[in-house]
Amino acid sequence: MKSIVCGAGVVGSSIAEKLSSEGLEVTVIDQSSELIAKINEKLDVKAIVGHGSNPTILEKAGASECDILIAVTQVDEVNMVACQIGHSIFKIPKKIARIRQQDYLKENWKNNSLPIDTIISPEFEVANAISRRLHAPGAFDMVELSDDRIRLIGLKCVDNAPILNKQIKTIASEYPKLLSNILVIIRNDEYFIPNSKTTLLEGDQVYFVVESSHVTNTMKAFGHYEKESTNIIIVGGGNIGFNLAKNIENEHNSVRVKLIELDQNRSKWLASNLENTTVINGDALENEILEEVNVSSTGSFISVTDDDEVNVLSSLLAKRSGANECITLINNSSYISLLKNIGIDITIDPKAITISTILQKVRKGKIRSLYTIGEGLGEVIEAVILESSAFANKTIKEIDLPKNVRVGSILRNKEIIIPNSKTIFKKDDDIVFYAEKSSVKRLEELLDMKK
Description:
The protein is of the alpha/beta class.
């Protein structure tokens, strides 16, 4: 498959690296000769200096033979026009555009928009990701899968967890009614797929899938008894903060939300466009403002400005003042690993979320969702089994499945199944997998294999 990536920034270069590592033919276009030089040094891809929406540049990049165009430059209009040119002139089958400007995303415009197959809005994606985490208190990660019948949960094993120092097979026998399956464990900065003899230890970070109605009981087994926050403070009233506040208003009628915004004009706009959110105009780094919003009694303190320093410092001030939980947006991914031990409970990487969303649309086979976990440790992939795939009517033993791929759950005819070695996969099964980076391509091939 041939692909063109317009934009050589962090997102564009990461997408190009992912696709190239899986054997795809990738061409990257960017106006910056410096960024293109970095791409040439780092990746085995074709890189061109030029404007991503210029027909001559697209032709030079091989647009006439391209299968997918991914436009992720910093300029919405360039991304949209690139997709239009790719459609009208070069007949590119699949076109993806990153669009930030909220006006372009209004339903009355989107329904009559340019020929873009998938629009990625980082602000919407990040706001939705934070909203999901609020539904799983005590977890540092949560994703809804299989029509929300399955939840992917990431949490830390704490000292009061009933399952500590027990093998997974023992835990399964003690909790036979919990439809859950551990996919990967992160221990002392190392990660591995567990087996039945693996013992869970205090401090382990565990990703598991669980049937949605069993989330609460499973969280308790891991020592987490936290309740959903009813008092939330948001710092930053940009597109992320605004969309997050709207999400909470729509989903949590009983939750009280206070939003701190530094810009006075933006504060007035927010107050006019939010119904049940209290908007405070001020600096979240000032103690007087934190006292005004009563930060000491807040359940979740969420800092989502476009300034990493403000996000980190305000979160630490809130934590020191007594906030129960801090969720912090970090734009510079290299900082994330440094923040784990200084009081930041949950970090949000907007670029990782955007990349996961784009990759979901690129994968072969009938991929329903895709989520990159940890710092690029691997991918959780939800896929529907095609009749032509290598899985149809076979057990795990009969499939040449790499050892670093784990089958988490199956949704079949509205029933959740936690599979074992004897489970036979059937056409139209909705399956959740975990695959380490080195095996994603092989899993994709098995899902898309033709007879």
